[in-house]
């Protein structure tokens, strides 16, 4: 579980490669994945695939919604209260491979499925969704029900239905028709059954032998299609991708590239970027975010929603529309804003109900997504800022550096009493940590980073003073000293871990598991490719999607595929 | 004793006509002991719940100086005076860490609930409410989780990958229980809705995927799939119940929909949401919608706060200096006392509902606990615990017991036995125990 931290440590402190051959040298040091041609240009070669296990991944809330919208259209309502995703190794995407499905979740999935079934098979819309006219609306029509199943079954299960599955849902529709006296009523319950099936709610990956590498397995074509599609669109494979999978085209490099480029160019690609960055930035925490209404009267749930949207909009605009350098997200001086957000940023927004492109600040006092309300408010207390929480989040979220929990037995009372008039600013109060050896080890990696953001209060308003004392926002980040938040922005942008971290997180997001030690050469390859592309995220995602590592499956060690129920006995949960 | 049966009453009064009136269930339908309904012989069910508050207590304001039945309630327990005979106060029981790192506010809470200390949220066994619900939870909902402080989590886990989320809005809780699918237990007429049958049968068909899928995945995923199929089966059982006439319930009144309330961690809002949810939960228990519940009054790292204050209950426990006059943290004490007032209000809600010859509380076993004793140090030694209610006569209360550093798993073991589980040993390493607390068992 700490393999990832080790992986980071190996490279911590290495300077950012500045010239092409230095880049090659850097990579050579790490794992010799590049060579220099005569003209000194690096030639990147993907290391041999390592592969991970096949996974059983639960659809996330955004994937569920996007999947339903892609199959049935965006106006079909999904009415359910999804429980929060399980976060593991910094990402909900990794947690999807570990999360179970509680009784509460099934209740909610069931309600969502009924809502969808009611909408598309209700009188108004059924003609649009059922590809045939039943012989009678009160009697069962096998052919017509079969046609409906044939149209939506493969889309829902992300692969063709087996005969048993088709029969099962036809039988459900027949029984429903008989008991309820209506063809569409029966069809409704067949659809509810399909939408609560594990084949729909879980992405069940299956492996097959890899003809090129007998020691490895690879995903089967439909599992490949699902992995690709959820990675690049946060949604289900469309008909074209399923067709390509069925025709065996995803095994050919050219056809695969064609599909990948098609998905990258589709409007759905934005969904994938939003899903990844919302996950990386821990925006699920907004569900529990509360601010004291007396201290921060400008905060409400609309502002919170706008704050999230602002950051995601900026990211998509910069990375896709501007084809920008990932690292520049930390020094962006422009942003999108709404009028309610403008109140916090003290920025007049002329448009009453719309997003406007504006300067993030006019004096450079605010730069980059880490100075957005979404980051500042999320990593603070309900009634005040927190340099420690913010410093910790910068390390965890953007640099992939884990900071341990505070020791259990610590007296904080000297440290953070906000009414202590002798210690007017957080810097004064946190200073006490440095005298406590149990604290100083971790606080010296968090606080100097978070203190640079002290000019923003617990919601994100700019302030020059705290308790009448001028705030000193100087600090240092892994060897780079700075005077203020703008300096932190530059230091974060230029930190070598910044780009390495996003590469690792995107790869983990793609494959749904933590990276392992044996993959370090592959990580170095991706990082070198990322640097060579000028830190273009869409190109990084393309490189991942086209790499052999992405689809490779390691042979299961103790549990051969298809072993059956033999191990089920050992699942005992009750320790007694 | 009584010569009239419920059915006879219906026929006699209404000449058999099917009319939609609520049918009162009179005490004369009960047997002499008041423990079961005479007509059906069906026993009044016993319910189990947990009630959790965060950030522990101030020992000198909470722990009675005397043990046994003759004790004075210290200041913070004073609000519970009306319930002193219905409460067992358990002080001085420890979560034994055995070298496991103490994750603040987590290790103590989950150690108490699973018998196994863990350094994070990855529980190694189901929490005891889940063990108990597997035994008694054959109701419409396996269990109901609520949190009054705006946090969607609970400390109820079947498995590390699937914590049971809490309802945080009284209105949402109301709709889930009393909205669509709710059947008035005392309705004079019952017509099974065939849609439930069709719905149930399609879910049963899903179970047919089980065997093939189990063969395709590794051991860990098999456990997750197993959980999925368990959840599906629970939904099937819920639908099966809808096809049977609900058992009549005496004194049941359909609650009205609660108002839409602000959901956050401001103390007054939390108290109000807690009162509303406690009332709804009590009604849900009364009419057999669930037999198990978990209430999270405040999260273990309590985010409760007073309006306009820059500190929360949790941050105060660490930062507030000890008041030299009082000898404890003044603000922290305010939150600790409020937590006990809320607990009293929860017991008020349960005992407001008459049942048998007593109240709903008599037929409940509620385990109230915190995550630590002294929050400032995150101490997991001496976590305060209370047992309320008499579990239909299976549990004795009205005493204070000092655990003298015994493993806290003794409490979990005793509670499981009281709820009828066949378990004689629970917990691991220093927490493993086969010693129940005999004083608790009637």
Molecular structure report:
The complex is a heterodimer of chains A (576) and B (442). Chain A is mainly alpha-helical. Among the domains of chain A are: 56-204, no CATH class; 276-494, no CATH class. Chain A has helices spanning 3-11, 20-30, 61-72, 92-95, 103-121, 126-129, 142-157, 163-180, 183-195, 198-201, 221-233, 239-246, 253-265, 269-280, 301-321, 339-345, 373-378, 387-399, 426-431, 437-451, 485-494, 496-511, 520-532, 537-546, 548-551, and strands spanning 34-36, 42-44, 56-58, 202-204, 207-209, 217-219, 334-337, 356-359, 465-466, 469-470, 475-477, 480-482, 552-553. In chain A, the strands form 6 sheets. A 3-stranded antiparallel β-sheet of chain A has the order 5-6-13. In chain A, helix 2 (20-30) packs antiparallel against helix 23 (520-532), helix 22 crosses helix 23 and helix 22 packs across helix 24. The longest helix of chain A is centred in the middle third of the chain and has 21 residues, at 301-321. Helix content of chain B is 32%, strand content 9%. Chain B has helices at 6-14, 59-62, 107-114, 128-136, 170-178, 194-206, 210-216, 219-242, 267-286, 313-319, 330-351, 409-418, and strands spanning 47-52, 87-91, 144-147, 292-296, 354-355, 358-359, 364-369, 385-388, 399-402. In chain B, strands 3-4-1-7-8-2-9 form a 7-stranded mixed β-sheet, with helices on both faces. In chain B, strands 5-6 form a two-stranded antiparallel ribbon. In chain B, strand 5 and strand 6 (358-359) form a beta hairpin. The longest helix of chain B has 24 residues, at 219-242. Chain B starts with 5 loop residues before the first helix and ends in a 24-residue tail after the last helix. The chains are: A mainly alpha (576), B alpha/beta (442). Chains A and B meet through helix 5, helix 8, helix 9 and helix 10 of A and helix 6, helix 7, helix 8 and helix 10 of B.
């Amino acid at each position: 579980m700490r393999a990832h931290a080790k992986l980071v440590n190996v490279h911590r402190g290495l300077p950012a490669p500045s010239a092409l051959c230095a880049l090659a040298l850097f990579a050579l040091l790490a794992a010799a994945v590049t060579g220099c041609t005569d003209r000194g240009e690096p030639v990147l070669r993907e290391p041999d695939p390592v592969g991970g296990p096949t996974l059983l991944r639960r659809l996330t809330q955004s994937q569920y919604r996007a999947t339903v919208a892609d199959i049935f259209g965006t106006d079909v309502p999904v009415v359910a209260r999804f429980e929060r995703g399980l976060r593991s190794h910094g990402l909900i995407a990794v947690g999807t491979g570990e999360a179970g499905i509680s009784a509460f979740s099934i209740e909610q999935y069931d309600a969502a499925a009924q809502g969808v079934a009611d909408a598309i098979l209700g009188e108004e819309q059924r003609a649009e969704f059922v590809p045939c006219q039943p012989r009678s609306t009160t009697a069962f029509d096998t052919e017509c029900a079969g046609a409906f199943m044939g149209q939506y079954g493969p889309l829902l299960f992300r692969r063709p239905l087996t005969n048993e599955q088709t029969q099962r849902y036809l039988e459900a529709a027949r029984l429903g028709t008989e008991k309820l006296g209506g063809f569409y009523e029966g069809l409704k319950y067949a659809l509810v059954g399909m939408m609560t099936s594990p084949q729909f709610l879980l992405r069940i990956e299956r492996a097959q032998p890899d003809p090129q590498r007998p020691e490895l397995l690879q995903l089967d074509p439909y599992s490949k299609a699902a992995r690709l599609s959820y990675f690049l669109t946060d949604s289900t494979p469309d008909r074209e991708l399923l067709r390509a999978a069925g025709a065996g085209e995803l095994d050919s490099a050219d056809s695969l590239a064609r599909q990948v480029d098609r998905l990258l160019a589709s409007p759905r690609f934005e969904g994938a970027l939003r899903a990844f960055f919302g996950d990386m930035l821990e925006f699920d925490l907004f569900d529990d975010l509360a601010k004291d209404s007396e201290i921060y009267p400008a905060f409400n749930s609309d502002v919170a929603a706008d704050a999230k949207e602002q950051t995601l909009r900026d990211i998509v605009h910069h990375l896709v529309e501007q084809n920008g350098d990932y690292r520049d997200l930390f020094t962006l001086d422009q942003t999108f804003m709404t009028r309610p957000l403008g109140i916090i940023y003290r920025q007049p927004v002329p448009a009453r109900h719309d997003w406007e492109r504006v300067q993030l600040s006019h004096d450079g006092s605010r730069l980059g997504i880490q100075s957005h309300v979404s980051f500042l408010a999320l990593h603070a207390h309900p009634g005040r800022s927190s340099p420690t929480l913010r410093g910790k989040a910068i390390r965890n979220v953007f640099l992939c550096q884990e900071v341990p929990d505070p020791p259990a037995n610590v007296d904080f009372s000297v440290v953070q009493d906000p009414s202590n008039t002798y210690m007017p600013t957080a810097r004064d109060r946190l200073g006490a940590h440095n005298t406590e050896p149990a604290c100083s080890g971790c606080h010296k990696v968090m606080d100097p980073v978070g203190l640079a953001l002290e000019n923003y209060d617990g919601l994100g308003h700019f302030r020059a003073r705290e308790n009448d004392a001028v705030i000193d926002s100087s600090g240092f980040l892994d060897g780079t000293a700075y005077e203020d938040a703008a300096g932190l922005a530059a230091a974060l942008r230029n930190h070598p871990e910044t780009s390495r971290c996003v590469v690792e997180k995107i790869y983990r997001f793609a494959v749904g598991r933590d990276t392992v030690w044996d993959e370090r050469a592959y990580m170095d390859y991706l990082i070198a490719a990322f640097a060579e592309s000028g830190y273009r995220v869409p190109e990084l995602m393309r490189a991942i999607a086209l790499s052999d590592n992405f689809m490779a499956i390691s042979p299961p060690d103790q549990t051969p595929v298809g072993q059956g129920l033999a191990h089920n006995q050992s699942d005992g949960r009750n320790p007694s | 004793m009584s010569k009239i049966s419920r059915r006879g009453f219906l026929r006699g009064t209404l000449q058999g006509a099917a009319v939609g009136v609520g049918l009162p269930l009179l005490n004369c339908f009960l047997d002499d002991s008041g423990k079961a309904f005479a007509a059906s012989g069906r026993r009044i069910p016993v319910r189990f719940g947990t009630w959790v508050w965060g950030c522990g207590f101030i020992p000198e304001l909470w722990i009675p100086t005397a043990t046994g039945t003759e004790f004075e309630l210290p200041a913070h327990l004073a609000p519970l005076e009306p319930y002193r005979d219905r409460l067992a106060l358990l002080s001085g029981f420890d979560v034994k860490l055995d070298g496991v790192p103490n994750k603040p506010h987590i290790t103590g809470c989950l150690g108490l609930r699973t018998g196994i200390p863990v350094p994070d949220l990855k529980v190694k066994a189901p929490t005891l409410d889940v063990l108990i619900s597997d035994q008694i939870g054959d109701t419409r909902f396996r269990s109901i989780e609520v949190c009054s402080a705006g946090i969607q989590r609970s400390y109820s886990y079947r498995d590390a990958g699937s914590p049971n989320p809490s309802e945080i809005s009284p209105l949402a809780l109301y709709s889930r229980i009393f909205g669509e699918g709710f059947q008035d237990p005392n309705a004079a007429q019952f017509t099974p809705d065939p849609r439930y049958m069709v719905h149930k049968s399609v879910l049963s068909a899903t179970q047919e995927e089980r065997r093939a899928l189990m063969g395709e995945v590794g051991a860990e995923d098999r456990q997750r799939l197993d959980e999925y199929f368990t959840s599906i089966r629970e939904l099937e059982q819920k639908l099966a119940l809808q096809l049977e006439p609900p058992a009549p319930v005496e004194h049941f009144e359909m609650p009205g929909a609660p108002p839409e309330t602000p959901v956050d961690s401001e103390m007054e809002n939390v108290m109000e949401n807690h009162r509303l949810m406690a009332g709804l939960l009590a009604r849900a228990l009364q009419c057999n919608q669930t037999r198990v519940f978990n209430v999270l009054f405040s999260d273990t790292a309590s985010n409760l706060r007073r309006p306009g204050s820059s500190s929360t209950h949790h941050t105060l426990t660490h930062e507030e200096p000890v008041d030299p006059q009082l000898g404890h943290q003044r603000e922290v004490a305010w939150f600790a006392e409020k937590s006990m007032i809320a607990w009293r209000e929860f017991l008020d809600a349960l005992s407001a509902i008459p049942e048998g010859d007593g109240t709903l509380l008599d037929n409940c076993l509620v385990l109230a606990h915190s995550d630590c004793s002294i929050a400032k140090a995150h101490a997991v030694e001496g976590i305060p615990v209370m047992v309320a209610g008499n579990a239909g006569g299976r549990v004795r209360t009205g005493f204070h017991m000092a655990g003298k550093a015994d493993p806290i798993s003794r409490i979990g073991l005793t509670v499981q036995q009281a709820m009828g589980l066949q378990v004689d040993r629970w917990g691991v390493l220093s927490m493993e125990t086969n010693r129940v607390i005999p004083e608790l068992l009637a």
